[in-house]
């Protein structure tokens, strides 16, 4: 009797595979089936159950046919399911994950140092699984004798910061940081870097904001030089990175918990290098305007080389104009080094002005006749203006105001505020004409104003220390007569 089964071998692009045993051809089992049917019929007829024999054979035949059909269908279904699984497995992994977020779960960013030994990552994943955590993206930064794991994961809403940190610590994690974040952070590192680079090139972001978005929870501050830092430019030292700023001075990056990795240092240096390249090729674009008396002036971004012109602007402004700008007599202490006869560098406002912190209004002779600042923390900004006395009342301040608000929208700011003195009715008219609303008084004799940019989209939220660091020490104000 022929074999009841046969094995089938086939070659694929992954080598030779053995298929599951399949039913043999009908000719292999027809003879024994016929013998069994005949024997059953003879026995039943001998017992005088001829009618019963017909029913027994009919039912047995139907059952046999059903069993045969099922036996043929199961291997086919198994092979079909296997092909679909293979297609999903080898079709290629997506570069980004879905951005949806369940209402009862929250997205967290976690960073921790772990020992570089087998089983460390598995232990960490196991502890997070006990919290019903779902890891969405993950990066591993190799460092000396260890690794820094940074990942985004969804957790149930009832899981808080202490429980999460405890779970990571119990798995061997050190220097653990955890913070809630949003779906925007779910893009992978290459995608995020390309997006930030595009915003830098287009001028819709500035180096400090790009570095915060690239590296996560870090503090970025501007310094005139590296004096007193204990480190030089383009240097990584534990929790600090020092880089040259494209507009002059240096950028100091600090992380409160955990050290920077060499990979993060390389990314930060590449980002500031791109900003410097953009600065070198972009030149100093300006927009021409006509004052009310027919005089021509241009509005452009400020640069380090403009420091002598900015110093001259302050010298030619009256004490009253400077008082309305800084709320103190003369020049405030935090601005004196910038405007002294031999300053080393401009301050942070001029340092980042190329991409939106400061704008200058220049006369046809090249003099700086007005200056506008927009200090911001990525979510909200503060607007301030200073116009030379002989150019007040000609519309220069309004032109600077409009240009600064345009940049605020490009930066995605949610709101812009301003602070004026109670008797500065000209500035009040300038703010009201742009849509600012009076929101109260911080101190007697002062008015606070706010403009909600309802078409703005909020960026990543800064830390409290970042927000406080970006607010200038001296109070800000604008020109005396902006119209």
UniProtKB/TrEMBL annotation:
Domain ACT as annotated: residue spans: 109-188
Top-rank taxon = Bacteria
**Residue ranges of region Disordered?**
1-22, 456-483
The answer to whether UniProt assigns keyword Lipid metabolism to this entry is no
Asked whether the UniProt record includes Ubl conjugation among its keywords, one would answer no
Residues annotated as domain N-acetyltransferase: 297-454
Residue ranges spanning the membrane: these are: 28-47, 53-74
One annotated GO molecular function? acyltransferase activity, transferring groups other than amino-acyl groups
UniProt keyword annotations, A-Z: Acyltransferase, Membrane, Transferase, Transmembrane, Transmembrane helix
Segment forming the signal sequence = none
Known InterPro entries for this protein? ACT_dom, Acyl_CoA_acyltransferase, Bact_Acetyltransf, GNAT_dom
PROSITE patterns registered for this protein in UniProt: ACT, GNAT
Sequence ranges of Basic and acidic residues compositional bias:
1-11
Q: Which Gene3D superfamilies match?
A: 3.40.630.30
Please give the coiled-coil regions recorded for this protein.
Answer: none
- Please identify the protein, giving its name as recorded: Acetyltransferase (GNAT) family protein
**Native source organism of the sequence:** Actinopolyspora righensis
Read off the lineage from the record: Bacteria, Bacillati, Actinomycetota, Actinomycetes, Actinopolysporales
């Amino acid at each position: 009797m022929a074999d009841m089964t046969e094995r089938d071998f086939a070659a694929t692009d992954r080598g030779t595979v053995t298929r599951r045993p399949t039913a043999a051809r009908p000719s292999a089992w027809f003879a024994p089936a016929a013998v069994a049917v005949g024997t059953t019929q003879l026995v039943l007829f001998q017992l005088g159950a001829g009618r019963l024999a017909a029913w027994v054979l009919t039912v047995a035949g139907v059952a046999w046919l059903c069993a045969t059909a099922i036996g043929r269908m199961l291997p086919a279904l198994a092979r079909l399911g296997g092909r679909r699984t293979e297609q999903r497995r080898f079709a290629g992994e997506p570069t980004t994950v879905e951005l949806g977020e369940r209402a009862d779960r929250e997205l967290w960013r976690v960073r921790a140092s772990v020992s570089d030994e087998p089983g460390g990552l598995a232990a960490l994943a196991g502890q997070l699984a006990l919290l019903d955590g779902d890891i969405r993206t993950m990066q591993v930064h190799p460092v000396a004798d260890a690794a820094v794991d940074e990942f985004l994961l969804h957790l149930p809403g009832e899981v808080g910061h202490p429980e999460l940190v405890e779970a990571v610590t119990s798995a061997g994690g050190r220097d653990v940081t955890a913070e809630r974040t949003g779906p925007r952070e779910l893009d992978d590192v290459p995608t995020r870097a390309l997006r930030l680079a595009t915003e830098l090139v287009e001028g819709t972001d500035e180096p400090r904001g790009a570095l915060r978005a690239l590296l996560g929870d870090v503090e970025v501050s501007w310094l005139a030089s590296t004096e007193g830092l204990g480190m030089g430019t383009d240097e990584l030292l534990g929790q600090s990175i020092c880089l040259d700023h494209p507009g002059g001075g240096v950028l100091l990056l600090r992380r409160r918990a955990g050290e920077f990795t060499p990979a993060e240092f390389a990314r930060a240096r590449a980002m500031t290098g791109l900003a410097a390249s953009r600065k070198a090729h972009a030149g100093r674009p300006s927009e021409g305007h006509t004052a009310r008396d027919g005089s021509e002036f241009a509005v452009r971004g400020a640069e380090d080389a403009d420091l002598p012109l900015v110093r001259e602007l302050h010298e030619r402004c009256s004490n009253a104009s400077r008082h309305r700008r800084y709320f103190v007599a003369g020049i405030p202490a935090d601005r004196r080094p910038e405007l002294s006869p031999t300053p080393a560098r401009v301050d942070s406002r001029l340092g980042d002005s190329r991409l939106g912190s400061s704008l200058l209004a220049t006369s046809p002779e090249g003099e700086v006749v007005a200056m506008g600042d927009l200090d911001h923390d990525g979510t909200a900004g503060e607007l301030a203006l200073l116009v030379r006395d002989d150019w007040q009342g000609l519309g220069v301040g309004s032109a600077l105001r409009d240009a600064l608000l345009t940049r605020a929208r490009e930066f995605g700011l949610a709101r812009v505020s301003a602070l004026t003195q109670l008797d500065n009715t000209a500035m009040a008219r300038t703010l009201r004409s742009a849509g600012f609303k009076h929101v109260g008084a911080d101190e007697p004799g002062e008015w606070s104003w706010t403009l909600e940019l309802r078409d703005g989209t909020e960026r990543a939220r800064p830390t409290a220390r970042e927000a406080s660091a970006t607010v200038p020490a001296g109070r800000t104000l604008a020109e005396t007569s902006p119209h």
